Amino acid sequence: MAQIIDGKALAAQVKAEVKTEVAAWTAQGHRPPYLAVVLVGDNPASASYVRGKAKDAAEVGINSDTLHYETDITEAELLDLIRRLNQDNTVDGILVQLPLPDHINEQKVIEAIAPEKDADGFHPASIGQLVLGQPGFQPATPAGIMEMLTRSGIPTSGAHAVVVGRSNIVGKPMANLLLQKGVDATVTICHSRTRDLAAITRSADILVAAIGRAHFITADMVKPGATVIDVGINRVDDATRERGYRLVGDVDFEAVRDIAGWITPVPGGVGPMTRAMLMRNTLNAAKRAT
């Protein structure tokens, strides 16, 4: 049976390190780092993520505010807000919670954020630095996964890593991080048009599932002893729960844990690490600004 990669415990380690660094930073006379989080609408999942980020910020000594707007905010109004945050020297990091309403162009909003305040690591400048292997802000979820692999002692050099999903937020940057010198994995990206997907995933030493479909990765798709990282967060109906649903990943956890060597749970796996890496990005933004 697979060993569980405890994202909560690993995130606590990262946050403890960030807290120590923030304390040292403010002891030198600097103000605490400040993160501005922009939330549009009342998506329950987005609201939950934002509350978690605010809690983490408070734990590590980072100041944070959530700027909450109704779904009828116009694209022009949102872009004007970002321009004002860009110009505010007291703001170190800016995060716009996705998804945004359909009438707002998400890419335009991401590109409006000043690259030096790009706490989420989604700006084209940040992605370009990642691809080139240069220092910069890395998207928090892929960066968190790399921390999980490193802190769990999972070898990557020469390993075949398969990433299922090609999003700009997870799949593509994840593949690029695994390719970096010093990580040295051999990477295959799969997606909805990949032929004979199961044969490819069965060849993976490290399998990252980020496709957004509940229990998509089944036991017959996993190589015995593989490391399985589940990025998915999906709601499935569950009449036994008070809220009427439960959260599951892209991996059939109960079946795959009997095959894999290491596996992340959902919830309690990748999610906490994502938020922890956001705190690190915000601290680094404050240091760079100074």
Largest sheet: 6 strands, parallel
Number of strands: 11
CATH architecture of the largest domain: 3-Layer(aba) Sandwich
The tally of helices reads: 10
- Residue stretches low in confidence (pLDDT < 50, at least 5 long) are none
What quaternary form is this? single chain
- CATH homologous superfamily of the largest domain? NAD(P)-binding Rossmann-like Domain
The strand line-up of the biggest sheet is 1-11-8-7-5-6
Shape: globular
Class by alpha and beta content:
alpha/beta
Along the chain, the helix and strand elements come as: EHEHEHEHHHEHEHEEEEHEH
Q: How many domain units?
A: 2
- Distance between the terminal alpha carbons, to the nearest Å? 48 Å
The CATH topology annotation of the largest domain reads as Rossmann fold
CATH class of the largest domain: Alpha Beta
**Radius of gyration over all CA atoms, rounded:** 19 Å
